[in-house]
Amino acid sequence: MGIPGRAVAAVVLAAAAAVGTIGTAGAATPTGGGTGTDGGTGRQARAWLPEPSGPYPIGTTALHLTDAGREDPWHPGQRRELMISLWYPTSHPAAGDDRAPYMEPAAGRHFDGPDGVGLLNYGTEPGRTDWSAIRTHARRDAPALAGGPRPVVLYSPGLGDPRTWGTALVEDLASRGYVVVTVDHTYEASEVAFPGGDLAPSVLPGMLGQPGLDIGAVLRKAMDTRVADTRFVLDQLDRLDRLAVLGGRPGLPAGLAGALDLGRIGMVGQSAGGFTALQTMHDDPRITAGVNMDGQLHFPGPDGHTGVFLPSVAEDGLDRPFLLMGTGSDDSGSYRDQPGWNALWQHSTGWRADVTLTGSRHGSYTDGQPLLPQLARQGVLSADQLRRDVGDIRPGRAELATRSYVASFFDRWLRGQDDHLLDGPSARFPEMAYER
Questions:
Q1: From CA 34, how far away is CA 16, in angstroms rounded?
Q2: Measured between alpha carbons, how far is 242 from 66 in angstroms, rounded to an integer?
Q3: Which residues make beta-bridge pairs with 260?
Q4: What is the distance of C-alpha 424 from the center of its chain?
Q5: pTM for the full model?
C-alpha cells in the first residue's frame, strides 16, 4: 500500500481513525520475529472461523459489477468497478475443500504483506498467515434454497478492510435465512481481487502520505464513494430481481435471483462501514433499518486530528430504526460521549437503541475477534497488540453477543419477529451496556 516509512504510516492511519475507520496498529513493530510457535520453520499460521448458529447451510457467489455511468473517483478515466459477494441459504451444505476460501490467494498474500491491512490495521507480522487457507462454511455457487424471497442485508467493512473481514457475522445471518450482500470499496479496500487475476490495491496510504493533504477531505471523498457504491449495488440487486421474472441471470446460482425480497432491506457495517450503513439509509429510502458497529459519525479537519464536522445523517437524524454498537475503545462507548452519535440520536424520530460491549475494542465486531487470538497463540502478533485490537473480552462471548444483537435487530425490523433482547438490559448478556 506504499506509504514511505512506518512512522508516516502511523501518523496518517491515526488521523484516519478520527472517523472510526483505520486503526493505529500500523504504529506497532512486528513482534513475531519470524518464529513464534513455528520453531523457525517458516510454517504459516492457520485459523478457523466459528460455526454459524442458524439452521441453514450456506452458499456464496461473487459478482463483478461495472457502473457504466460513473467514473472511478480514485482512478479518473475509468469506470467504477466493484466486487460483491452474496451469501444465502442453500440445501447443499459444504464440507472439506467444498468450502469457499476466506480470501482469494492473491488477495490473501497482499493482505498479509508489508503493505497490507493485516499489518497496518491489526499489527500482524507480514508473511506469517495463509489467509486463503482459511475456509468459510459456504459452498461456492450452490443453488439457493427454495422458500424465498428472503430479507436482504448489506454489509460494509471498515476503511481499508476487505469485504471478507466480516465473514463470521455474515455467515451467521445467512444461516438464519437472510441473503447477505458484502461490498468491496475498490481502491480504498486493502485489495480487491477481480476475475482473471487482476488485483486492485488501495490508493489511500500512498495518497495520505503526501505533505499538506487535507485528511478530512479525503475521508469525505471516501464516504461519498462508499454511499454511491452501495446505492449502485442496490440498483443492481433490483436488476437481478427483475431478471428473475425472465428466468434469472446466466451464471447466477439457481434460484438466487428470485430469493431477494427487496421490500425488506437492512444494512450493517463496522467502523466506516457502520457510518456507510446509516448515511446510505439517510440518503436512500430502500434501506429499512441499519446497524452501526463502532463507526464514528463525524469528520475531522484538514489535519485529521482537530475539528468536528457532522455529516447530513447526524444533522438530520433518521426516521427509521437503527442500532448503535459501541466498544471499550477510548473514542467509543455511549452515544452520549460521541458528537456524531449524540447528534444523530437527538435529531432522530425512528426507533433506536445503543449498546456497548464491555471489555471490547474497535476490532471486536470484525473477524479479528475470532481469528486474531488464534494467530497470537502462533506468534503472529503480540499479546499487547491483541488487546489493542480486540480487548480482553472472551472471544466466544464477544462473537455470541454481536451475532445475537444484530440478528435480533434485523429479525425485529425486517421479519416482524421480536425476541425482546433489545427491550432493555439483558441478563443473558451482562457485558452489554444498554441505553435507549
A1: 29
A2: 18
A3: 150
A4: 26
A5: 0.91
Residues 281-290 pLDDT 10s: 999 999 999 9
What residue type is assigned to position 432 of the chain? M
pLDDT tens-place string over residues 164-184: 999 999 999 999 999 999 999
Is 69 exposed, middle or buried (CB count within 10 Å of its CB: 0-12, 13-18, 19+)? exposed
